[in-house]
């Protein structure tokens, strides 16, 4: 029998607000242990949380980016559990009335992964095990998080990968988080089950906690899928439990079973008041939203005639697309701009991290100027290409490398002279051409291009050379 | 004239210096505390330091505020920077907060002279002050009787004139009930009128800080000083208290409501005293209106479910990791937390944590907590309706007078029942003030409470003040302490 994978994600994303969710402490990553703390975020008796309005605004941005509905009224709840990194023995979160309801993430295959809701909550601190002792660092305690809870709509590991990438991309675009999985500013819990293909009924699920890289998510899901299928094939059944994934051995192991599942005893946090979000606030936030990557990609394809694959590359990171948008202003062929970026500039920003930062020596305005020279016919492609390389090396503008005479074009007589020179100076190539070697003509044209410093029109040169040879 | 104004005049007229006054309070504490156990921590050095600063101001001819230099006390669940704040629990022994509660920040800013921290039921859970880790505070009228709870230490100290006034907290009657037992005045403000920031939480949606004083004027002065909006407490609403200027307003035509249910199951002498007070109001031109408030029967179970639920969560943080008591011998973190809590909390606290954990747990939440929340809404509505019929509600504060030592400990359920008249006010978030209205055959004080509309402190304090003027004989002094 063949089986289908069914998965849903709970994705935690740390928000990049300057201060924590319930106090004025900084959210900066790192720092000496317990140096980003105050009585509120270490949960001293008598302290009270005060909701940071920016957190609500950031979360609303996230909600709008995934087409969710922003609740006019939402509330904070307490999730009670005892762990040393949780200073109050409860996490302030949302269960009964989350800030954002519904929404979806659309995949490239056209499927929409529906979202159940997005809620805001506080992060916990960290335990540090050292010299046989355990220490607690509360710096991260109180850092704002959103949790994006999807429906069990994911049907393959590729979809899972794309879902996480898409979330990461869009959340970075709207500037609410850097979504660095390795630093923990984005973490996923994966709920996974299997069922016979064609079956409508959901199987028993397991939950793999705290995945911190997309590759690990893929590997863990692959392992867990196989494990569950094997179990069923061998007459067993899947037990609902929480698992941890060990990337060293590429296996999952049980953290706790359903019987041991925490009873979080959620209830409304009496220390915090109801959150009211008016339609005006939502509209105001909407007006500050950047164009989202999916919309941008579609626009590049439909309006700028950029091939889909290239459009995806250009929209993968916000900085690249912004660079592209600027460099395109007023140019005849955005495709040329795209080619320069993907063909030449990308060679200088090889890693994904470099591409994300996209800190290149040539400004989009400089690239724009170069492309406009090309557009107007003042220079030819070859010269533009070599000039861009020089610009990338030096950070200087195109005009530093292109002289007036370069831009003057080539008159008929000069071109005739250069073609004559090429034919006379390269008898071997001429001979080859005459003997049916079509390619030999290219070397003659190349000669003309070289001697004209790229100013000649290669097609015109070719026809003149052919005439000369006869 | 209340104690605060009297002291203010004494200081301004240089009848005595603030240092002399403070010293005499400290001396009297020394004499009385052995028997009354009102204070759990006397902060004489700090008190004298503040007194000295006040004296300097007076000597320099500077004007001083009404509360400046007035010796007072705080219940031991109000956070005081650098001064041990224990909630009278073993689990918080040694805990010195690194910040001040907003109310203390305010009063310290006015050079209030804090004599020390006063006794209370552990984590404010109790009605006799006897669940305190340090033993109960005793009643200044007769030290064989309890002072009441949970703010028993403040009531005992104020009743015994070893503090001019004090701040307590009231979750289900913890200001009003001990004030009633000790024959003094206790105001539980509207929820949100006074910042809770720095008040160590018992039940966050019910807790409210308020004054315990010898007179209505004093309660009014202190309330006006501490009731203001606090950015650090999202539930504080910014009342901007101005009740003092409204004292002594005419109450002719004021409608004083009596709900029959408040008089059911009340001891006869208490009922009589309250009805006698109604007569006094009538003679002053107020109109007495009787009505039913059947929803009151839900109040006690609703209170114990909500309060315990919130407490079970609020008290989760006492794990021995960051502050307070930590068990000596343990094997790993889990064991450490279990032992610390088992050893650190007293019986009553454990009982309420367990009860609260139970009512919130999966499968029981709907049957208990959710139902209690719904009924809370019903009670709020019932009070709103009642206030269509009257301006203030008159009721007993407690169905009886102070119990004898040890009585409360022996029967927790019966003790819970004594909260029947006080808890509805907390559930509805309303203000209530307890004032003495008589004595039982043994000479122990009886208290009545006036309940007001939301943020109706001025109205109930005015009504209380009028009563105080008409029935001064019920405001009796005790043998203890500083005689002004």
Give the low-pLDDT segments of chain A: none
Shape annotation of chain B: globular
Principal-axis shape of chain A equals: elongated
Strand order of the largest sheet of chain B: 1-3-2-6-8-7-12-13-11-9-10
Mean pLDDT of chain A: 92
- How far from one another are the termini of chain B? 11 Å
Based on CA atoms alone, the radius of gyration of chain B comes out at: 21 Å
Order of helices and strands of chain B: HHEHEHEEEHEHEEHEHEHHHHEHHHEEH
Cα gyration radius of chain A (Å)? 30 Å
Supply the helix-strand structural class of chain B.
alpha/beta
Question: Regarding quaternary structure, how should these chains be classified?
Answer: heterodimer
Overall CATH architecture of the domain at 3-251 in chain B: Alpha-Beta Complex
What's the helical proportion of residues of chain A? 25-40%
Tally of helical segments of chain A: 16
CATH fold assignment of the domain at 3-251 in chain B: Amidase signature (AS) enzymes
Number of helices of chain B: 16
